[in-house]
Amino acid sequence: MPTVASTNNAPERPRPTAWLLGALLAVAVLRLWRLPEAGPPDFDSVRNWQVVHELAQGNFAHLFHHGSPGFMLLFAPVAALTRSFLVFQLINALLGVAGLGMFAGWVARQDRLPGPEAAGLVLLGGTGLLLTFSGRDFNMSSASLLVAAGLLRSHYARLHKPVPRRLVAGAAWLALGLCINYKFLFAVPILAVLEWWRADGLWRRAGARALFVLAAPYGLLGLLGMAVGLPWYRWLGFYWRTVVPATANTAGRQGTLHFDVLYYFRYLAVFESPLLLLGLAAALGLVARQWRRGDLRRGQPLPLLPYLLVWAGCLLAGMSLLIKAPRGLLLAYLPLAALAVLSGRQLLPRRVLLVGLLAAVGLNVHRIQMQLYAPLPGRYPAVAAWLRQHGATRVASTVGNGLAPYLSPSQSLTVITDERELAALRRQGVQYVLLDGYWRVAGVARFDSLRRQVPVAAWAAAPLHQPLLFLEHSEFTGLNFEETLAASRAAAADSLALLLYRLR
């Protein structure tokens, strides 16, 4: 009796849920830390902010901007309530944390992870440099992670319980993802591979319903587009122009294929946790051993480790054929983190795994500090304040639009990609031009004459020198990994990245 009593009175071990919530809170703090000082990190974030405000005002001309009508409509009600760019960043950041929580909670349940390992998964994935960077912008990445977690969870359940409603549910998650981010198209061949492997005949019974669910958003939003005066094919036309651009972009890049197998491996090795590549290699070895033993057979559902390996491996292989940017692997980062934890559980003593996760998270946080926090604050608010003090109402900016959220509604910003546009803008009443160092990031070097003039004001802007910002634009510039980092180093040598000139 005393033994039983002492056992019953022992403190209860914390449940995985408590560990998960604690780790998610830590990630949320990292995502929100000094966010008001960061401002918009890229052109697309500001353009999305502008489009959702257009929608809130009843202007649907850019409903299919970036092939992401669902994302735009999701935030249009927020735009009806506030103009603050920070509010959009805040909501987007929390969406990313929610996606991380959904994914990690699902993996923890499936593999019965103890609390510390579950928290380690959250922290390893949540402190990754790219996911932290994209979790502080106003792009589709954060919402995409939330939908991707739902898709992986739903489709995994469909593979293990082949009933029609689960197939339809998976199709609904994919349809939602396609509304949020066109890059969910890359999930289609992966799902096809997994369905081919399962080969359970479910598509013959419920395939028509699944395809109807997939097609429904295109029909409904296509009708909405037609109702507001857009061509019925505008959404599909975006896909076509993404694959086959009509002309080169302003950086001179036109093609979409760029076979560079090492780009993503170099990025992961230099900027992300070494555990991601080690976990990928370990998972390959473990799955190969299962294959040799005959544990993996076509027609049988894949266990969690091989399932996540298919997702991560196919994304790495497929994206290696296309123009590159770290966000190309957006849907692979969390599966890679899970592979590191799941394979480590099979190969390492528990204490070694936990120490390794702790060290990896520490390295990630150090990189976040050096890459994202140290360059702060952004200087666009200072530029906007100077313009207000000097009565400027019409301003031009070279390539970058980061100034726009800080201007008052009575002020306007015109983005130019060539200094030859300035003569016409001067005649139209534009008073100042900001030589925004974003031109270096985008690789649009058409401002030599402007640079030789004497500015009326200048500001340092270290956030415009971040290597990760340049790498995120290598998809736009077409530069390879080394060329992009060289461009970042060249930009860092220019201490004053924001130069303001008076147009006379």
Protein described:
This protein is mainly alpha-helical and 504 residues long. Helix content is 62%, strand content 5%. The protein contains 25 helices and 5 strands. Strands 2-1-3-5-4 form a 5-stranded mixed β-sheet, covered by helices on one side. It is globular. The chain starts with a helix and ends with a strand. The relative contact order is 0.11.
- Overall pLDDT level: 95
Distance between the termini: 94 Å
**Which of globular, elongated, flat, extended, rod-shaped describes the shape?**
globular
Radius of gyration: 24 Å
Number of contiguous helices: 25
Overall strand count:
5
User: SS-based structural class?
Assistant: mainly alpha
Largest beta sheet: what is the strand line-up? 2-1-3-5-4
Q: Main beta sheet, described? A: 5 strands, mixed
Low-confidence stretches: 1-14
Please provide the ordered H/E string of secondary-structure elements: HHHHHHHHHHHHHHHHHHHEEHEHHEHHHE
User: What proportion of the residues form beta strands (DSSP E)?
Assistant: under 5%
